[in-house]
DNA sequence: CTGGAACCTGTCACCGACGTCAGATGCGAG
DNA sequence: CTCGCATCTGACGTCGGTGACAGGTTCCAG
């Protein structure tokens, strides 16, 4: 699979795919002419990367966490594993915070709705 | 309350407070010498702004939503109200997405833990 | 009254993921 | 073989919320 195909399948720009590789997040083999070739796992991988980015992780953080995901061996995995749990906890806090914010917005909406109906009556 | 006090109380930099004002998100009266003065509601207001920023809203979006929050009158509130609900829904989707991501991370952690214990045994 | 801390405006720098352009090269269909 | 699309590398631009600095003014404690 070439980079254009991967981009089309994963819904990510070609630029981003090159960037992911530059950051050490996505591997590719090169053809004789130097063009990138991806295996069938790539789209899922890219989707996962997108997920982590959306969760607020930076490229560097993702890179630190990935060895834990890819090669669940030992040693160089130990701190990556800790990182992974740390990021999970951070995400958890984030979710709670966002939920509180949503509740606050709900409160505003409710107050506004009541106010509007009070005017209407 | 002067800008330094507000910054200290709300845990936001002086720079950011001036920026919020520049974006029309935070009002201040000026002293004779031109220095900003804030009333007692300001810290809560700033905290709320921080919440919205953390929820991923841009300054412009916050500005579009605020009239709905501040002056729950009618007319110029109508579309602000729609905006507010739109943003609430967007936030809701975001929360769901992050929750899915957290579940994915939990899956990885669990898999890794099992793998580690398999090695240990 | 005075000195120094706090404040003012204005401007430039930064970060990080990505857009975009340029110029060169690879690749496959006809 | 050739034409044209896809891909390559490298570089610069962008956006938004802030940091940081400069040069000047205001405020308050002593």
TrEMBL record, chains A, B:
Q: Which Pfam families match?
A: MerR_1
Q: Which residues form a coiled coil?
A: 74-108
Task: Tell me the superkingdom of the source.
Answer: Bacteria
UniProt keyword annotation of DNA-binding present:
yes
User: InterPro entries this protein is in?
Assistant: DNA-bd_dom_put_sf (IPR009061), MerR-type_HTH_dom (IPR000551), MerR_fam (IPR047057)
Q: Which SMART domains match?
A: HTH_MERR
Q: Which UniProt keywords are present, listed alphabetically?
A: Coiled coil, DNA-binding
Protein name per the record? MerR family transcriptional regulator
Highest classification ranks of the organism: Bacteria, Bacillati, Actinomycetota, Actinomycetes, Micrococcales
């Amino acid at each position: 699979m070439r980079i254009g195909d991967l981009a089309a399948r994963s819904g990510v720009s070609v630029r981003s795919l090159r960037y992911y590789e530059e950051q050490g997040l996505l591997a590719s083999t090169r053809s004789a002419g130097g063009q990138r070739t991806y295996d069938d796992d790539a789209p899922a991988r890219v989707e996962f990367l997108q997920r982590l980015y959306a969760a607020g992780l930076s490229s560097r953080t993702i890179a630190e966490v990935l060895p834990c995901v890819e090669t669940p061996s030992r040693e160089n995995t130990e701190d990556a594993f800790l990182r992974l749990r740390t990021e999970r906890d951070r995400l958890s806090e984030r979710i709670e915070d966002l939920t509180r914010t949503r509740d606050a917005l709900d409160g505003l909406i409710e107050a506004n709705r009541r106010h509007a109906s009070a005017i209407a009556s």
